[in-house]
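Hi R.,

Quick one: here's the Cytochrome P450 family 4 subfamily F member 12 sequence you asked about.
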Amino acid sequence: MPQLSLSWLGLGQVAAFPWLLLLLVGASWLLARFLAWTYAFYDNCRRLQYFPQPPKQKWFWGHQVLIIATEEGLKNLTQMSATYPQGFRIWLGPIFPFLVLCHPDIIRSITNASAAIAPKDDLSIRFLKPWLGEGILLSGSGKWSRHRRMLTPAFHFNILKPYIKIFNRSVNIMHDKWQHLASEGSSRLDMFEHISLMTLDSLQKCIFSFDSHCQERPSEYIATILELSALVEKRNQHILQHMDFLYYLSHDGRRFHRACRLVHDFTDAVIQEQRRTLPTQGIDDFLKDKTLDFIDVLLLSKDEDGKVLSDEDVRAEADTFMFAGHDTTASGLSWVLYNLARHPEYQEHCRQEDRDPKEIEWYDLAQLPFLTMCVKESLRLHPPVPYTSRHCIWDIVLPDGRVIPKDAHSLICIINIIGIHHNPTVLPFPSTPDPLKERSPLAFIPFSVGPRNCIRQAFAMAKMKVVLALTLLRFRFLLDHTEPRRKPELIMRAEGGLWLRVEPLNAGLQ
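And here's the predicted structure, written out as C-alpha cells:
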C-alpha cells in the first residue's frame, strides 16, 4: 500500500499519521454535529406534527410565497388564521419551521413566560441593528431588562404632559398646509406622507429639542430616516439581500451604510451638546427651568448601582424611539382617518366630544372616550405591527397539551397579531368595525405583548388622540365617491387603496 506523501508541505512520511488522525477527528466531529442536528430536526418535526399545516405551493420554497412581507402576505396570514384559528405551522424553505399562533388562549403561554424563557426573535428586525444598535427593541434579555427599568421614567405622565403642546404645534403646521392647498383648489396628495412628516417633526422636538422645520422645507436628517425605513422594508422582501456580505456589496447596502452614518452623527452631536450643558449639581433648579426631552431623561437616568447609560446606549435608544415612534403612529393615524371616513356616524360622534378647536390640553384627553374607542378599534382592524416573533429556550406546554419544543436556533414562534384580531372564534364578525365591542385584553394587541410589550404606548396614544381631536374639528373626511364634489377640498390617497376627500370645516377657517 503506497505511503501518503506530504513532501509538498515540507513534511516527511513520518508526519503522515498525526495529520491523518487530525483529519479523522475533524471528520468525526462534523459527522457527529450533522447527526445531532438531523436527530433534533427529526424530533422537532415529530413534535410539530400536532400543529396543522397549509398545503405547500412549492416543495423547496415551502410557504414563502404565502407569507411575503406585502399587503398580499398579510391577507394570506389573515385568511389562514380563519382556517386554522388555534394556529398552524409553515416552512420557510425545506428546513426552517415556523409556528404561527392565532388565538389569545394559545399565545398566553408564551406571553406569560419571562423574556429569558421566550426571548424576542430578530427574524424581522435584525436588519435594523446597524441603525438602531442595542436599543430596547433589539437588545438581549439582560441588557433589555436594565434599559427597560431606566427608560420607564421617560414615559411617566409628568414627562408626557409638556409634550402635548409640541403635538399641538406640529399638527397645526400640517393643518395650515392643508388649508393652503385647499384654498388653491382641489389637490391630490399622500396622506401618509404628510402625517409621517408631522410625527417626525414632533418626535424630533420631543427627543432632541430640535426643530428642523421639516414640514415646511426639506430636512436631510428626516429624509435619511425615511430612506432607512424604506431600505429596511425593501431588504425584507428580497431573500438574497438577507445575507449581509451580499447586501453590503450592493448599491442599496452602500446607501444604507451612508444613511446610518449620517443619522448617528446627528444623534451623537446632540448627545455631546446636551451632556455638556447638563449641570453636575443643582439638578432640581435645572429641571424647573426646562422641559425635559428624551435625551435629557436618558442622560440623567441611573440604574440600581448608580451607573449611567453610555453615549452609545443613549444613541441607540434615541434612534429606536425616532424609528418606532414615527412609523407606527403615522400608520395608525392614517388608518383611523380612513375608517372614520367609511363610517361618518362615528366620525361625527368623535367630533362632538370636544368643541374647542384651538388647542388640546392634557386633561382633555380623558374627555374623549369615544375617540379613544375608535382609535383602539382601528388599531384592532389594522394593527401597525401585524406580528411579532419569539423563540423558546424551554419547552412550552399549551393549554390543549401540545408542546412548543425548545429550539433556540431554527424554530420561530410568530404571534400573529392581525390574525388574532380577525379570528372569528375570538370575536364574531371580526372585520366589521364596532368601537363599542367588548374584547379580551389579549384579543387586542396594538403594538406588542408580554414582558417585552411596547413601553411607548402611552406616548403614542396621547399623540394620536391630540392629532385626531384637532383634525376632526377642522376637517371632514369622506370616501371620494360618497358625495358630489365641492370646493375647497383635498383629495388624499389613504390606506386601503382608496381616496379620501378632506373638506375644511368652518372651525378650521377661523
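The beta strands are 87-92, 96-101, 187-190, 388-390, 396-397, 403-404, 412-415, 475-479, 490-493, 499-504.

Cheers,
M.
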